[in-house]
Design a protein that fits this description.
With 73 residues, the chain is an alpha+beta fold. Helices cover 53% and strands 34% of the residues. It contains two helices and two strands, in the order αββα.
Amino acid sequence: MKATTVVGIVLIAIGILGFVFGGVSFTHKKKDVDMGPIQVTHKETRSYPISPVVSTVVLVAGVGLVIVGARSK
């Protein structure tokens, strides 16, 4: 397989995952107080949404690269 086809397939997968999940979220455990055996912690969740427009553009670009890679034999 050519590099353009592989990149196209990866972009298609990223575009589909962007539609399915709608974003990425991370959970961080942070330590507020550490006084010997006493510890106070909390969990903080951050979300990074992925716009459907971006997912569409990535998906279309991936399909385009797969088509270009298939035609340039």
